[in-house]
Write a structure and sequence with these properties.
Distance between the termini: 48 Å
Number of domains: 2
Keywords: 4Fe-4S, Cytoplasm, Iron, Iron-sulfur, Metal-binding, Methyltransferase, S-adenosyl-L-methionine, Transferase
Oligomer: single chain
Protein name: Radical SAM core domain-containing protein
Helix content: 25-40%
Cofactor: [4Fe-4S] cluster
CATH topology of the largest domain: TIM Barrel
CATH architecture of the largest domain: Alpha-Beta Barrel
Organism: Lactuca virosa
Largest sheet: 10 strands, mixed
Subcellular location: Cytoplasm
């Protein structure tokens, strides 16, 4: 018999309702499981007897297990290989950083030590982005709500998590219902993450973007744009053919009008492909009427899979300068973490490689 994760919120609520058990017990069950990793159901205090029977017959505290934990040499980044109940595996990455090491408005930034968790939403990915290791796997399966939340559960036992970014394996908006439900669990008791500390990244699934704000208010939206014109997007992101750039930008304009929030734009720098000065000007004109933060991402080589080169520092700096000075668009450069353990952007593919990651300046904790 296949057991369900106790964090599969809709399923456990339905089961409790059908059994006549008050669903208000569910958050306290979640809290106990988070605090007691190897608990037995009978150990949870003050539940109705029917709840113990139901939990024992249909649920597990966690359906996934941490198969391995790999730390970068400097201990800044930790990659978790998580084995699912069906035998498949996904990866989650903890990134630790101190915001006081960065600058904002020419002054040291406030804050202190923080941890961000990069979460996977699928096993593999349908999008097939040519610069991404996960895309080389193809699509295997969607994760359930519980399997998504369990990544936070496992990571929380290693580090207090303040931010969550859905930038791991998979296209989050292609697993829409599980994503929405998982975020609702994460922002409720006992996790109580602020929606403003959760970022969902997408290649631009237009129909999902159109309903996202109605289902999840105050979260951050990050769009993997990666090119300023449709033909280049299609070359490096096959899924872009289904989501024409003009229609995507119209969808983002409507999203921004409803949400009144800045949108994060992710832009991977591929040498000679999308990193020339003309591309910077095209990108600036494309985003001129939007409130955005652009995050330039140095390309992470993915071994024999890669046909791309990494843009030189001078090119990246020039690209950033054009966007800032000519278009007054706030533009950051992502400092990579976890490259030595294949835990950096675009490197999440199931393997166990060999082990320093510099200070992070990333989108999930910017002052907007």
């Amino acid at each position: 018999m296949t057991f369900r994760s106790v964090f599969d919120a809709a399923f456990i609520r339905t089961e409790f309702d059908q059994a006549g058990i008050n669903t208000q017990f569910i958050p306290s069950i979640w809290k106990y499981v988070v605090q007691n990793p190897n608990c037995e159901w009978r150990e949870i205090p003050s539940l109705p007897s029917a709840a113990y029977s139901l939990l024992s017959s249909k649920f597990k505290p966690c359906t996934s297990v941490v198969d391995s934990v790999l730390d970068s040499i400097d201990q800044v980044t930790t990659k978790l290989l998580i084995k699912l109940q069906n035998g498949a595996s996904v990866e989650a990455v903890i990134m630790r950083y101190d915001t006081r090491l960065g600058k904002y408005g020419g002054k040291p930034r406030p804050g202190g030590p923080r941890s961000t968790l990069c979460i996977s939403s699928q096993v593999g990915c349908k999008m097939g982005c040519t610069f991404c290791a996960t895309g080389s796997m193809g699509f295997k399966s969607n994760l359930s709500t519980g399997e998504i939340v369990e990544q936070l559960v496992h990571a929380s036992r290693l580090s207090p998590i303040r931010n969550v970014v859905f930038m791991g394996m998979g296209e989050p908006l292609n697993n829409y219902n599980a994503l929405v439900e998982a975020i609702r669990v994460m922002t409720a008791f006992p996790f109580q993450l602020s929606p403003k500390k959760i970022t969902v990244s997408t290649v631009g699934i237009i129909h999902a973007i159109n309903k996202l704000h109605g289902d999840l208010q105050n979260i951050n939206l990050a769009v993997s744009l990666h090119a300023p014109v449709q033909d280049i997007r299609c070359q490096i992101m096959p899924a872009a053919r289904a989501f024409p750039l003009e229609k995507l930008m119209n969808s983002l304009a409507e999203y921004q009008k409803k949400s009144q929030q800045k949108i994060f734009i992710e832009y991977i720098m591929l040498d000679g492909v999308n990193d020339e000065e003309q591309h910077a000007h095209q990108l600036g004109r494309l985003l001129d009427t939007f409130e955005v933060v652009i995050n330039l991402i140095p390309f992470n080589p993915i071994g024999t899979l890669s046909k791309f080169g990494t843009s030189g520092d001078e090119k990246v700096t020039k690209f950033q300068t054009i966007l800032r000075s000519s278009y007054n668009i706030r533009t950051t450069v992502r400092k990579q973490m976890g490259q030595d353990i294949s835990g950096a952007c675009g490197q999440l593919v199931i393997n166990l490689p060999n082990k320093k990651s510099p200070t992070l300046t990333d989108i999930e904790d910017l002052h907007l």
